[in-house]
């Protein structure tokens, strides 16, 4: 492998262990059954068919704190209900992305309501834990919705007419720019070259990803399909590949459609001290943050439940400024 632009290949079960500026990525896949009246699963799980995570009625992650990093949540299937200690809430679904800067501290919950009572409720999302610079860790928390209708797609056709679709979540692909990231994000500045793509290749399609800078971190995760060739090497399904950044990388799908999560960016280059849901730069900062959380809870939780959800008929939306301002995407279908 030394003559290839591949540094490592590792199998993935759930968590993708990454490098600066990325922390890790969780890949949640669940085969939820039909829903009951309370937006939970109608039947109990058998043989670990699906996870409730920490939800008791509705699957998901009830009220919990974060500080010092960002969560970037990319939904491929299913629905997510968001609530936070700023008083904001929202519902987003397949194709949407939520980018949350936790800054100096926030509580939130992410619940996965099951909306369909007459059919199964498949669920899949990625949540990228993305680090912040020391200065950004001190900023107020904020989040931004990137609706599927707004996310740029680049469509590439190879010499044989086979097509690839590159969804540009962050950064650029060739001359196509992503939606602006939150202001106090390491990914907001072009010079940090944080490129996040969701790539879909038709069967046998070929695609070349341009080189980035020699100092960048670069990963590809093959998460759907049967065969994928990266830089002349056959990659197995659900494997994470670390790549040399300063070379163009050639991809080719096998006989089935292939999907790839692509992550690259300039490192922050600061110490990382991580304890549970807090990511700072030293153990003393972690101790101070936990003390501050015990005293303040990063603001009072304004919701009646630690695991609230919206009603079944709620369309996609997001609220900001303590719930004072709402936005909706161009369509409300779920």
TrEMBL record:
Residues 48-129 form the Pirin N-terminal domain. The keyword Oxidoreductase applies. The keyword Oxidoreductase applies. Its EC number is 1.13.11.24. One of its GO terms (molecular function) is quercetin 2,3-dioxygenase activity. Belongs to the pirin family. This is Quercetin 2,3-dioxygenase. It comes from Acinetobacter bouvetii. The lineage of its organism: Bacteria, Pseudomonadati, Pseudomonadota, Gammaproteobacteria, Moraxellales.
């Amino acid at each position: 492998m030394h003559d290839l632009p591949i540094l490592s290949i590792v199998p993935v079960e759930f968590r993708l262990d990454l490098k600066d500026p990325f922390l890790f990525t969780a890949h949640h896949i669940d085969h939820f059954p039909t829903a009951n009246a309370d937006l939970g699963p109608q039947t109990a799980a058998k043989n670990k068919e699906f996870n409730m995570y920490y939800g008791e009625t509705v699957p998901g992650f009830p009220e919990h704190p974060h500080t010092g990093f960002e969560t970037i949540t990319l939904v491929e299937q299913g629905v997510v209900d968001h609530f936070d200690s700023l008083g904001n809430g929202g519902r987003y679904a397949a194709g949407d992305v939520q980018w949350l800067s936790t800054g100096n501290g926030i509580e939130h919950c992410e619940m996965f309501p099951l909306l369909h009572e007459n059919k199964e409720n498949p669920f899949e999302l990625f949540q990228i834990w993305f680090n912040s610079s020391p200065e950004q860790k001190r900023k107020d928390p904020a989040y931004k919705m990137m609706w599927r209708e707004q996310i740029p797609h680049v469509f590439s056709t190879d010499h044989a007419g086979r097509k690839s679709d590159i969804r540009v979540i962050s950064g650029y692909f060739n001359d196509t720019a992503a939606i602006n990231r939150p202001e106090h994000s390491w990914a907001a500045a072009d010079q940090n070259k944080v490129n996040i793509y969701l790539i879909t290749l038709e069967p046998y399609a070929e695609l070349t990803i341009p080189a980035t800078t020699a100092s960048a971190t670069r990963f590809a995760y093959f998460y759907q399909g049967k065969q994928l060739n990266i830089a002349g090497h056959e990659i197995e399904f659900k494997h994470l590949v670390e790549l040399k950044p300063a070379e163009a990388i050639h991809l080719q799908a096998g006989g089935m459609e292939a999907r790839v999560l692509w992550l690259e960016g300039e490192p922050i280059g600061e110490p990382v001290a991580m304890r549970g849901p807090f990511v700072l730069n030293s153990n003393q900062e972690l101790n101070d943050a936990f003390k501050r959380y015990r005293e303040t809870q990063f603001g009072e939780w304004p919701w009646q439940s630690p695991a609230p959800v919206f009603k079944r008929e709620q369309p996609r939306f997001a609220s900001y400024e303590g719930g004072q301002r709402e936005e909706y995407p161009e369509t409300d279908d779920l």
